[in-house]
Amino acid sequence: MPLVCYVSEQEINAPLDAERLLRLLGVSGKLSGFYYLVYMLELVKKKPENILLITKRLYRQTAQHFGTNADCVERNVRTLIRACWRQPDHTLLDRISGCPLTQPPTNTEFIDMLAAYLRT
């Protein structure tokens, strides 16, 4: 299965933001969890302690922002992570995590490592 890249030529040298990072990881805006995750990554990037309250605050705040419920947000983010994991090349994901991953990260791990990567 070939790697599908959703980054345009003009985006190659653009500053890295949550949306661009997710596209570099091989996932697209077609997935419901894509924009939920972009929103959450920006919140955690600005205020890292938000990751400590992912279930009680972050999912609920995201659900309220998008007019859905927290369970839907959690499930759609999990689906997006699985889609990212199914990509044949994990080089960027391993670089972001700081070590080779042997299994898909949890929602909290994924959000935490991507937000930390965006802060650097």
Would you write up a description of this structure?
- The protein has 120 residues and is mostly helical.
- It is built from six helices and no strands.
- The protein is globular, with a radius of gyration of 14 Å.
- The termini are far apart.
- The mean pLDDT is 89.
- The chain has helices at residues 18-24, 32-46, 54-66, 70-85, 91-97, 107-119.
- The longest helix has 16 residues, at 70-85.
Summarize the structure.
The chain has 120 residues and is mainly α. The protein has six helices and no strands.
Which descriptors apply to this entry?
mainly alpha, 120 residues
Q: Structural class of the secondary elements?
A: mainly alpha
The radius of gyration computed from the alpha-carbon positions, rounded to a whole number of angstroms, is: 14 Å
User: Could you report the average pLDDT, rounded to the nearest whole number?
Assistant: 89
The H/E string reads HHHHHH
Poorly predicted sequence stretches spanning 5 or more consecutive residues: none
- Tell me about the biggest sheet? none
Number of strands: 0
The tally of helices reads 6
User: Separation of termini?
Assistant: 32 Å
| Share in helix | 55-70%
